[in-house]
Write a structure and sequence with these properties.
This protein has about 550 residues and is an alpha/beta fold. About 55% of the residues lie in helices and about 20% in strands. It has a domain of about 140 residues. The strands form three sheets. Strands 2-1-4-5-6-7 form a six-stranded antiparallel β-sheet. The chain has a six-stranded mixed β-sheet with strand order 8-12-13-3-14-15, with helices on both faces. The chain starts with a strand and ends with a helix.
């Protein structure tokens, strides 16, 4: 749900901040005060189009920011997600999700899973048959999810097989060219007879050879120092101390320590002497090592970053050579596997389609009952589920589309053929009423859904908005007192002139202010009669609230 909305420099809005609540949030106010600009701002933050004429006069940039509370969303931090979009006059966009820069398209993809906006001229999800299948599947619920999951696993497998068949080395000439290249590479690696750990050993040996003169000179100096001076000096010291070791334990300890040093030093001297004998400079061996290292470097540049990677590449190309040389057998194997997967997809697809057809009729009936209550008595929704024989889609084998007949005796047609934005909004309201609770969209926004309706239809719209808001946050711009009366939170939007500039302001109304606003929009003026009417309308909501509170207690 949206917890906070911040808008700056959009149309006549200089800067406003709104704290929104769960349930039904109704926005009312004067004509031209900026109500639709708030919906437009929500469209902008949802990745919608921004035109320069939406920018407040005299300003160079606009800014919209919302805070969402979506605890189950993986992008949420402590349940919160902060989305912002800044648009500059020079056309530069800056979109962020929790401080992370994203593109407008990424923002749009992210937000379409959270917010849906429905208005007089904005019901794109209702016109997109990809959304129709989502509506139906959400209505069906758990019973279809397992089937769709199994179907999708096989669908991914089928696409992988198709891709492999399509990329099966081209024509005969192309296959031979590929085979020659692979065999050349395999032969080059095999001739090198690489061994794991070989490069490290060669580098170590090369280092010793290149530094052989320096090593020999150093070892000789150490050998002379130990042999001629140190060992003899320690031996003499031991002989002298031995004369007094029996007098005191301290002297005996030192004699023993010197003996240990003497024996250890003798061992070191022998090792140094042996190292000296091992050191030699062989120009031919150095050349061989360098040539071998050059060979390894060349192979690494072509086939991998290490000998281990090169040897793995050798195994991979040997397997690929086998596949090409046995291509007909391999292709036949893939085709058999493809047929098996397609049969499995057909089997699951039929089950999905049968379930959809049964549930499509149920969903159609429920939507049509809601349409009657919305004073669209002659309208009839029909959900077509067409099983496509030789096609496989990610969601199954069905094409799902909503059709409508608005008047008796007329042919049904696609929803996109509906001319009236008001009718489209009421159809969407009927669908959302049925799907309340199963729809994963958390915020629904209705812009003047009440246009052109009154009386019983207005009451029905109010009831349905209230019902939907039990499960999802709803924002609604309205001119109807019936809708304002059932709101959980009411907001009044007005415009003021400050320093010869018009600016929008917004205020959350308390209960008394709400009664006055309901009275105002019911007849255009506030009187004893309109106030009494407003109280009666509001009483229904208050009684509902009180009753639910008493039940909770």
């Amino acid at each position: 749900m949206i917890t906070n909305l911040h808008i700056k420099n959009i149309g006549i809005i200089e800067e406003i901040e709104i704290e929104l609540e769960k349930g039904l949030n109704v926005l009312t106010g004067e004509t031209g005060a900026g109500k639709s600009l708030i919906i437009g701002s929500l469209n902008i933050i949802s990745g919608g189009r921004f035109s320069k004429d939406m920018l407040r006069k005299g300003e160079t940039n606009a800014f919209v920011e919302i805070c969402l509370y979506e605890p189950e969303n993986e992008d949420a931090i402590d349940g919160n997600i902060i989305i912002s979009r800044e648009i500059n006059l020079n056309g530069r966009n800056m979109c962020k999700i929790n401080g992370r820069m994203v593109t407008v398209n990424e923002l749009k993809e992210f937000m379409k899973k959270i917010i849906e906006i429905h208005g007089q001229n904005d019901n794109q999800t209702l016109l997109d048959n990809r959304e129709h299948i989502r509506y139906l599947d959400n209505y069906i619920g758990e019973s279809i999810y397992k089937l769709k999951s199994e179907y999708k696993q096989n669908y991914i497998k089928l696409n992988k097989i198709k891709k492999e068949l399509k990329e099966n080395y081209g024509d005969e000439k192309e296959r031979q060219r590929k085979l020659d290249l692979l065999k050349y590479q395999l032969n080059e690696i095999e001739e090198a007879q690489l061994k794991e750990g070989e490069e490290e050993a060669l580098n170590s040996k090369q280092k010793i050879i290149l530094n052989s003169e320096k090593i020999a000179k150093t070892l000789n100096e150490v050998d002379i120092s130990i042999g001629e001076n140190t060992i003899e000096a320690i031996s003499n010291s031991i002989r002298v101390l031995e004369k007094i070791e029996s007098i005191d334990n301290r002297y005996q300890e030192k004699v023993n320590s010197l003996r240990s040093v003497y024996y250890e030093l003798q061992e070191i001297a022998r090792d140094i002497s042996n190292y000296k004998e091992e050191i030699y400079f062989d120009e031919e061996e150095q050349k061989e090592i360098e040539e071998r290292l050059d060979t390894i470097f060349s192979l690494k540049r072509k086939y991998g970053n290490s000998i281990e990677e090169i040897l793995q590449y050798k195994e991979d190309i040997a397997e690929e050579i086998y596949r090409i040389e046995n291509l007909e057998e391999y292709t036949n194997k893939l085709k058999i596997e493809q047929k098996e997967v397609q049969n499995k997809l057909d089997e699951i697809g039929i089950k999905i389609s049968q379930l959809r057809k049964i549930k499509a009729e149920e969903l159609s009936n429920e939507i049509n009952e809601n349409l009657k209550e919305l004073e669209m008595k002659n309208a009839k929704i029909s959900i077509h589920v067409d099983y496509i024989e030789n096609e496989y889609f990610e969601t199954g084998k069905d094409k799902v589309e909503f059709y409508i007949r608005t008047n008796i005796g007329e042919d049904e047609k696609e929803l996109s053929k509906i001319a009236s934005g008001g009718e489209m909004s009421r159809v969407m309201l009927a669908i959302k009423t049925v799907l309340a609770g199963s729809d994963k969209i958390s915020v629904l926004i209705f812009d003047e859904i009440d246009t052109g309706i009154s009386g019983k239809a207005a009451n029905s719209v109010a009831d349905k908005l209230s019902k939907i808001s039990d499960k999802q946050q709803v924002l609604c711009i309205s001119h109807l007192p019936n809708i304002a009366a059932v709101a959980d939170s009411n907001y009044f939007i007005s415009k003021n002139i400050v320093n010869e500039r018009t600016s929008t302001s917004i205020k959350r109304l308390n209960e008394q202010e709400t009664i006055h606003e309901i009275a105002r929009i019911s007849s255009g003026e506030i009187s004893e009669a309109t106030l009494q009417y407003a109280k009666e309308l509001r009483l229904k909501k208050l009684l509902q609230f009180t009753t639910s509170e008493e039940i909770a207690i």
